[in-house]
Design brief:
8 strands, eight-stranded parallel barrel, alpha/beta, TIM Barrel, globular, binds phosphoenolpyruvate, 15% strand, 254 residues
Length: 254
């Protein structure tokens, strides 16, 4: 089973419209091949539309633009939130769900992620669903329990068929934004566990087809060994995605 590598940048709360435009114009020509892998950028909600139109201005490159969060309702009295339909309306086609910063800083639960996931699939957005253990979980030997619970909770209600439209990201919380990367063995072990678990929750065929990205301090100098692992199908990249040269280097290694 060949799974097309997917490299996605997560800009978090960085880059205004002008900075997003400058990045995209610089980044696109640095990518060697747009066929070999999919590439996405999760930008601030305020620059979604500008990012989409900048990609179109540069040419016909399949650079995917997405959001970093969404609400499950189409509209309503939810101050500060954006809906899947609003994201769709900007021309963006991807959304990150359940990022550990959302879980830890904003109290997002697996149940919320499941609702958001259902809404994202309804709008035809490509969801990147994040799971991962904290350092405390790992040190107390609970990594696989935590991952199993997150997969059960976040993917509740997902059918075998719709699993094919979902991208998963394994992001050990202790490796995000810390400069500490999981070893290739730790990352491959967790990815293999996730795929094994999915093959019981869904069908083995669906589990075999789903892409599982690694996230946690991925940089040009550690990306290759991670991406070479059999169950690692790409990367979700925070810090290193803010620099077009770094991100393009990682894409060109994938
Ligand atoms: C992330 O934000 O999803 C992430 C993995 O960040 P970093 O690459 O900076 O660790």
């Amino acid at each position: 089973m060949t799974r097309k590598p997917f490299i996605a940048g997560n800009w978090k709360m960085y880059k205004n419209g002008q900075q997003a435009q400058d990045f995209i114009r610089q980044f696109i020509p640095l990518v060697n091949s747009w066929e070999a892998h999919q590439v996405g950028l999760a930008v601030s909600a305020t620059v979604l539309k500008e990012a989409v139109s900048t990609v179109a201005t540069v040419g016909s490159f399949p650079l995917i633009i997405g959001a970093q969060n969404m609400h499950w309702e189409i509209e309503g009295a939810f101050t500060g939130e954006i809906s899947g339909s609003m994201i769709k309306g900007t021309g963006a086609t991807m959304v990150i769900l359940g990022h550990s910063e959302r879980r830890q800083l904003f109290g997002e639960t697996d149940e919320w992620v499941a609702r958001k996931l259902a809404a994202a699939l309804d709008y035809g957005l490509t969801p990147i669903v994040c799971v991962g253990e904290t350092l405390q979980d790992r040190e107390s030997g609970r990594t696989f329990n935590v991952l199993a619970n997150q997969l059960t909770g976040c993917l509740a209600g997902v059918s075998d068929h719709s699993l094919g439209s979902i991208v998963l990201a394994y992001e050990p919380v202790w490796a995000i934004g810390t400069g500490v990367t999981a070893t290739v063995e730790q990352a491959q072990e967790a990815h293999a566990f996730i795929r094994g678990r999915l093959s019981r929750q869904f069908s083995p065929q669906a589990a075999e087809a789903v892409r599982i990205l690694y996230g946690g301090s991925v940089k040009p100098d550690n990306a290759k060994s991670l991406l070479d692992q059999s169950d690692i199908d790409g990367a979700l990249i925070g810090g290193a995605s803010l620099d077009p040269v770094s991100l393009a280097k990682i894409v060109n290694l994938a």
